[in-house]
Amino acid sequence: MQVGKRIYLKREMPDLKVVKSFAKLPASNVADCMERSNAMNPRIQLMSNPDQEMCGPAFTVHTRAGDNLAIYAALKYCHPGDVVVINDEGDDTRAVIGEVMMTWLRDQRHVAGVVVDGPMRDIDSLQNWKLPIYATGTTPGGPYKEGPGEVNVPVACGNISVYPGDIILGDPDGVISIPRKEAAELLPKAQAFHKKDDAKAAAFSKGTADLAWVDDALKDKGFNVIDDIYRP
């Protein structure tokens, strides 16, 4: 995807009540309600120590590999409650963000979190922060500040598409993106699924879960259940 030099200051935003409701749900349950899709690649891992889930509208950044000029633009223009989502063009040689920039995002912009499809640095400090921070790893290598880069355009992050204003939900399992246009319709389904999933976990714990469906599914998919040992 070609990187341009565009900075959009406005986005179509999700309903704040819907965002707050998704913040109460596990990312896994919501992803299951989206046909088990929209989860970012597990190379993007939780790097800090938050005491709550990350949930907020996406403020997207598409930067040239190893360059953070456009991320500095995001520092100027993002808003409280945003999740800053950064596409670093798959680069893994240079950290595009670290403690100094994160401090501004936390203390001045009051963002809900940061997601970088690339490395960060200053992990010795940031790993203890309550701000949710996700990245692919760490490196001491620093970035360029030349551009190009774009702000609030569609980006690819963790192998999925993220549009400005999509709802980004993250917990210790990882990060998912909830399309803004589908969020209101998805919410009650995800809430019902979560309630049902809690009941399912309780049944498994008590040994009362009904697994009869497994035999039917195996038969339907053509599995052979052999009452014998494997012999080469």
Strand content: 15-25%
Could you name the CATH class?
Alpha Beta
- State the share of residues found in helices, binned by percent: 25-40%
Order of helices and strands: HHEEHEHEEHEEEEEEEHH
**What is the alpha-carbon Rg in Å?**
20 Å
Characterize the main sheet. 8 strands, mixed
Second-tier CATH architecture: 3-Layer(bba) Sandwich
Poorly predicted segments: none
Query: Overall pLDDT, averaged?
Result: 96
Q: CATH superfamily membership, which one?
A: Ribonuclease E inhibitor RraA/RraA-like
CATH fold name:
Glucose Oxidase, domain 1
Q: Quickly give the structural class.
A: alpha/beta
Distance between the termini: 49 Å
Overall morphology: globular
Number of helices: 7
List the helices and strands and how they pair.
Elements: H1 16-22, H2 27-32, E1 45-46, E2 54-63, H3 69-77, E3 83-87, H4 99-107, E4 113-117, E5 119-120, H5 123-126, E6 133-135, E7 137-138, E8 149-151, E9 155-157, E10 160-162, E11 167-171, E12 174-178, H6 180-206, H7 212-220
Parallel strand pairs: 2-3, 3-4, 4-6, 5-7
Antiparallel strand pairs: 1-6, 2-8, 2-11, 9-10, 11-12
Helix pairs in contact: 1-6
